[in-house]
Amino acid sequence: MLIDHNLTEYNYKDIIYEKRPCKDYDGKDVEGLYNAWIIINNPAQYNSYTTGAVKEIILAFREASNDRSVNAVVFTAVGDKAFCTGGNTKEYAEYYAGNPQEYKQYMRLFNDMVSAILMCDKPVICRANGMRIGGGQEIGMACDFTIAQDLARFGQAGPKHGSAPDGGSTDFLHLFVGIELAMFSCTVCDPWSAHEAMRFGLITEVVSALKVEGKFIPNPLVRTDRWVSKKTGEIIYGKIKKGDNLVNGKTLLKSGEVDLSKLDEAVERMCTKLMMTFPNCLSKTINSIRKKKLEHWDQNKESNRDWLALNMMTEAKAGFKAFNDGPRGNREIDFIKLRQLLAEGKAWDEDVHRAISPQYQ
């Protein structure tokens, strides 16, 4: 009789855990072998993870890692809008803001979630079914591969909303895209299209998801080619930012429907390719490459946890409450006002908080 190495038996509530049969090169189910699908299930809040979901993701990765019949893990989410947008802002604003001792305990769980992905004994594929932003970007980068639908966007949110991307992005992102692009993404927080992410080396594969009149077309809001502006001479790649092309792109986007069948096909192909390898040689290869992430992650995760907890008394408190409580279309603090008050030597107190927050204006 085989020994059970799981820590506990668990019935998942906040996520979905499924075992789906592996497929051979002909697309036929393989008897006795499975891919474990770990699915974030909070589409109403763009698949942000609650404290409960974080706990379950940890347990799910441990279960998949220990399961002798599992070939690979697919980490994804419900719907077609978002893979994950990070921590649940409502929970942050209403419970953790102003409570650094509680947030420090939460960040222990978050760190364990990232570590559970990095320590999984099976290869992990992030199926980016939509936006991968903030903490979602971080847990996505902890995975070994990313296959994305081309309407997805990738980026950070930390300095825009009162935090720092110290849950993995400051450790991992430069390994994918280099120092300068990592610096740009982590600071100004402009998102990248899936095509930009592919070009920068962030993801493994990108596939079409928009169907118009029964045919798949590329994301009409981006250009997949490199071109030069006739007016400015500027080299442009990625987003269509203005003019008739943007209007036409939005119209085309609204006229179509999102179909993730190509995404699922690509994910299954990758799982099949991984199955057709020696399992121990595959595991050793993956772990050797993961060491580059772990070198940074293990060095920084505890000091980052301490800082992120203390930051809940000042900028994070203001940023998360503004995002949660501010009026629609105005969910950022007044950055100029904040900098002016700090330049005057004002201390962080309730008066400063009210002066910069949109919900009090």
Write a structural description:
The chain has 361 residues and is of the alpha/beta class. It contains 14 helices and 15 strands. It folds into 3 domains: 15-209 and 259-313, Alpha-Beta Complex (2-enoyl-CoA Hydratase, Chain A, domain 1); 210-258, no CATH class; 326-360, no CATH class. The chain has a 6-stranded mixed beta sheet with strand order 1-2-3-5-7-10, sandwiched between helices. Strands 4-6-8-9 form a 4-stranded mixed beta sheet. Strands 12-11-15 form a 3-stranded antiparallel beta sheet, covered by helices on one side. Helix 1 packs parallel to helix 3, helix 2 packs across helix 12 and helix 6 packs across helix 7 (179-188). The longest helix has 32 residues, at 279-310.
Helical content band:
40-55%
Question: Which ranges are low-confidence, i.e. pLDDT below 50, for 5 or more consecutive residues?
Answer: none
**What is the topology, as strand order, of the major beta sheet?**
1-2-3-5-7-10
Give the count of structural domains. 3
Portion of residues in beta strands equals 15-25%
**H/E order of the elements?**
EEHEEHHEEHEEHHHEHEEEEEHEHHHHH
CATH architecture field of the largest domain: Alpha-Beta Complex
Number of helices: 14
Q: Could you describe the largest sheet, including whether it forms a barrel?
A: 6 strands, mixed
Question: CATH fold name of the largest domain, please?
Answer: 2-enoyl-CoA Hydratase, Chain A, domain 1
Quaternary structure of the protein: single chain
In CATH, what is the class of the largest domain?
Alpha Beta
Q: What is the CATH superfamily of the largest domain?
A: 2-enoyl-CoA Hydratase, Chain A, domain 1
Q: Provide the gyration radius in Å.
A: 21 Å
